[in-house]
Structure formats: C-alpha cells, structure tokens
Specification:
The structure holds two protein chains of two kinds. Chain A is mainly alpha-helical. Chain A has a single domain, classed as Formate dehydrogenase/DMSO reductase fold, CATH 1.20.1630.10. In chain A, helix 4 crosses helix 5. The longest helix of chain A has 27 residues. Chain A is globular and about 70 Å long. Chain B is α+β, with helices and mostly antiparallel strands. Chain B has one domain: 2-Layer Sandwich (Alpha-Beta Plaits). Chain B is elongated. The chains are: A mainly alpha, B alpha+beta. At the A-B interface, helix 3, strand 1 and helix 8 of A face strand 3, strand 4, strand 5, helix 2 and helix 3 of B.
Chain lengths: 290, 247
C-alpha cells in the first residue's frame, strides 16, 4: 500500500494525542494529577490530535464533502472514527474549560475521556484491520499495536513505571505484528489462480500489460518501492520507538526534559513503524499484476 | 445508506466468457467513450499525449498465459476486469459518507458523486481493483453496469445493455439477471460452470466468469495431423505432380 505521508502523520500524531488524552483522563479519574497538568497535557493531546486530523483531511481528494463522513456510523469504521474523535475532542475542550473556570476537576469525566479516546484510536485501527484485502492488517494485532502505541506514547510524559510496562507491551506486540505480517499471504487462500477463478495452485503468469503506464491502482495499492530496506527500517523503528525510550526511562526516571527526548524518539520510531505498516502491506489486487 | 440491501428481486450482472474473449480491448474503449461523453460524466486523463499518461477506466483487460496440464503447452487467455457488483460488497459498507450504495431493486453498486469525499477507502476494500479515483474530479469512479443505458427509454430496445456487452465483437460478454434461473446468463452459468473470483474474500460476486476450456490432447494433435497430412492431388496439379515425380 502507498505510504502516504498525510495518512502516516495522521495515525502517528492523532494516536499520540489521543493516547495523551487517555492517560490524563485516567490520572484525573484516579485523582493523581494537578489541575495545572490537566490543562497543559490535555491541551497538548488536543493539539497533536487536531494536527493529525488536519493531516488526514489533506488526504481527501474531494474535501468539501468531508463533513458527510459523520453520517455512516452504522457500517463504516471511518465514519465512527470521525464522530468519536469530534466527540472526544469536544469533551477535552469542555474539561479544560471547566478546570480553568472552576480550578478543580470532575473525576468521572476522566474515565469517560480515557475510554472515549482509546475507542477513537480503536476506530482508527479498525479502518485498516477490517480490510480482508490486506491480510497483514486483517487481524487483532492491528488494533493492539495502535492502542498500545497510543498508551505508551501518552504515558511517557506523565508516568514512569507504567510507561515502562506499556512500552514493553508495545514492543512485544510490534515484533509479533511484523512476524505475522511476513506470513500473511502464505497462510491465506488467495493467489493469482483464485483471482482469476481457477484453483489456488494454478500456474498463471501475466504476459502483457493491461495498460501502458502506471495507474491509480498501482500507485495506491501495488506499492513496491523501498521494500528492500524494510529490515533496516524495522531496526531503526524498534530502536527509536522502544529500545532508546526504555533505556532512557530506566536511566533517568522522573526527569521531564529526558521525557521530552524520549517522547520525540518514540514518535520518530512510531513514524517509521507506520511507514512500514503501509509500505509492506500487500493488497490482493496485486495478484492481477503478477 | 451504506447498509447492504437484500436484493431479492433482481441481480443484474455480467457473464464473461474467457474462452471467447480475444483481448481486443474493445470493451475498454467503448466503456471509456460512453462514460466520459455527454453531461457531467467524466473519466479524466492526465498527460494523455506526454510521457506518463494516466487515466481513469472502469474496465481493464489483462493478458495471461498458463500451462495446459493435458498437453504441456502454454496457452494464453485474456481477462477483462471490472466491478462484480458483489452481494456482500465491502466497498459499500466501508464508505463513511454514504456515497457508495447498492441498489435494492437490481443490486447495482453505484457511487453518488455528490457525496463522495475521495478518501479512497472503498478502493482499498475492493479485492478486485474495480474502483479508481478520478484524479481531476477527486471522486471515486466505478462500473455502473451502464445504468443510464439499460433503463433508457430513448435508446432502441436492442441497445439497452451495457456498452461493453454491446460492443464486444466476439460475444464474450453477456448481460442479464442472475437471480432468474431461466435467464440466458443463469443457464450458461449452469451449463458451463460459471465461477466467482476470489470466493475466499466472501464478497459473493454477482458477475460470473466462464474459464477457458482445457483443450484435450486429441484436439491438439488433430490440428497437427491436418497440417501434416498430404493428400493425393488430382486434375492438372495431379498431372504436374506425377510428371515431376518421374525425374
């Protein structure tokens, strides 16, 4: 699949933003955070989420109809994501406003924000996980890595021990995801044979092109560039998103300036991880162009 | 609405005979012509007279070769690929704006371009690559089964079929109601064993394909024997033959 920068930035930044909102919400529910920190950190979550959503807006080819994406919540995960993020961000704004005006917070709003922001990340992940056409996405590891990347990212600035645990879970899930992604089409029943109505093992090759230059399908779904570097990029991603943050948190617990560095490193790692998430994913339409 | 209706009345679709298709791309050209002329309809092209032309098409013809297990010879066939108007169309349910829909009365899957925001998710959800985003108008394009022809009251009755069917010079494409067991397409599917593409994707395509028939060893060798066999010439040629044979 084409690793469009707008979509990668969207999943990385809004994932981090909603992760931050969920952690602030959890701490608010547990009475473990100051009013000042709620304003700062949920404000930051709001900022990143909105930057992410704006970035996704630039992916649309016909932006004037974007508002209509709020209508099909009954069947469409993308629509659910749009509704859920608007709802969640409105509550964040309300919560910040309440804290500023009243100088205290309501604990129960915290749990609501925790659940709603994680649900938003879940809906984002289901946009990809629902697609039978892309086997490496079509499993529950996709929502799992999206949710734990968000939680781990969000916890770095606010927690020490918990962020270590969340980073560890994320690291394990990420390795598992890459492992299953490598096997995705091997275990599936699809082949050029079934794509053309024959049996799976039919020996069929393309001998001429259906069109003389690239088209939308090839650009969007049969993306092959730079897959040869994927193993190196996996190492970069894993080091930057997981190994370096883990080590820094262990060496300098509770140091806010180090946490900022950890956060930056983690986000860069997640960016590479998401780039691979798209670039390595193979779509079934590729069989027609074998 | 992006909820899929139960199409109990009619299931209109195409039956494509890969045994008959000669890969002329006539259906591709006529489809492009019909769907980009007149009114607001457009299937845009970019760089059409330059180095890397790209354009939107609703139908593409691929060319493949396969081993014949019976004769150990390589055979070629052509494969027109377009929307299959699936019963469980994944492209419809993923649509966030409600632009994609499946008609209850005949099962045709369409895009309402006034609602499409061009996110491209439906193209990702389609296993067959049947949807292409138009790069100029920014909305998703797909086969309409020529809904503006098949119900047209202005066209003469014999023209009220999809233009790809009408234009196919070998009659490799047929149009009909797959829900009616007595329709021509249903009978042919039964008789020749029509197949679904990627049945494992559980999309339940309405369009069916008839695969190229396997040519048997006998039919292949009999072609050879016709070529090699020498028959005794008669008449003037026979006299020349006999006369030349003497030397």
């Amino acid at each position: 699949m084409h690793p469009a920068p707008s979509i990668i930035l969207f999943t990385v930044l809004s994932g981090f933003g909603f992760g931050l909102i969920s952690i602030v919400g959890l701490l608010q529910f547990l009475n473990q955070i100051s009013e000042f920190d709620i304003i700062i950190f949920s404000g930051m979550g709001l900022f990143f989420s909105i930057i992410g959503l704006i970035s996704s807006f630039f992916h649309l080819a016909n932006k004037k109809n974007a508002i209509k994406s709020l209508s099909q919540w009954q069947t469409s995960w993308l629509s659910r994501e749009a509704i859920s993020s608007v709802l969640c961000l409105s509550i964040v704004v309300g919560n910040i406003g309440w804290v500023i005006v009243q100088n205290r917070y309501i604990n129960d709003v915290g749990i609501m924000l925790f659940l709603l922001s994680l649900f938003t990340v879940f809906t984002t992940s289901m946009i990809y996980a629902q697609l039978k056409t892309v086997p490496s996405w079509n499993n529950m590891l996709t929502p799992a890595i999206f949710i734990f990347a968000a939680l781990a990212g969000g916890s770095i600035l606010l927690m020490d021990f918990a962020s270590l645990v969340l980073l560890l879970i994320f690291g394990v899930l990420q390795v598992l995801f890459w492992y299953t992604a490598d096997q995705s089409f091997i275990y599936k029943e699809t082949s050029v044979g079934t794509a053309l109505g024959f049996s799976k093992n039919e020996d069929i090759r393309s001998f001429d092109l259906a069109h003389t230059s690239r088209n939308y399908l090839l650009n969007e779904m049969v993306y092959k560039v730079a897959r040869k570097h994927s193993v190196k990029i996996r190492y970069i991603s894993f080091f930057s998103a997981f190994v370096l943050p883990m080590s820094l948190v262990l060496m300098f617990p509770g140091n806010l300036s180090v946490s900022a560095l950890v956060m930056a490193s983690h986000l860069i790692g997640i960016y590479f991880s998401r780039w691979l998430f798209f670039a390595e994913a193979k779509h079934s339409v590729g069989f027609y162009y074998n | 609405m992006t909820k899929l209706p139960k199409c109990e009345d009619k299931k209109l679709g195409l039956l494509i005979d890969l045994d008959t298709c000669v890969g002329c791309h006539g259906c591709v050209v006529s489809c492009k012509e019909w769907n980009s002329s007149g009114g607001e309809k457009q299937l845009s092209d970019l760089n059409s007279h330059q180095k890397d032309p790209v354009g939107t098409f609703l139908n593409r013809v691929h060319s493949y070769e396969r081993e014949n297990s019976c004769t150990n010879e390589t055979e070629t066939f052509y494969f027109p690929r377009s929307c299959l108007h699936c019963e469980d169309a994944p492209c419809v349910t993923v649509c966030p704006t409600g632009a994609s829909y499946k008609r209850e009365e005949d099962g045709i899957v369409l895009v309402n371009e006034d609602d499409c925001m061009g996110c491209g998710l439906c193209a990702w959800a389609c296993p067959y690559g049947a949807r292409e985003l138009d790069l100029v108008s920014g909305v998703m394009k797909k086969c309409t089964l020529c809904v503006d022809r098949i119900y047209s009251e202005e066209l003469p009755p014999e023209d009220r079929v999809p233009v790809c069917v009408k234009s196919c010079p070998t009659g490799a494409r047929a149009f009909g109601d797959f829900n009616d067991p007595n329709s021509d397409v249903s009978k042919k599917v039964k008789e020749r064993g029509g197949v679904d593409l990627m049945p494992e994707m559980q999309t339940k395509p309405v369009n069916k394909y008839l695969l190229p028939r396997i040519k048997s060893k006998n039919s292949a060798s009999s072609v050879g024997s016709v070529v090699e066999e020498e028959t005794d010439a008669t008449g003037l040629l026979g006299w020349v033959d006999r006369a030349l044979s003497k030397f």
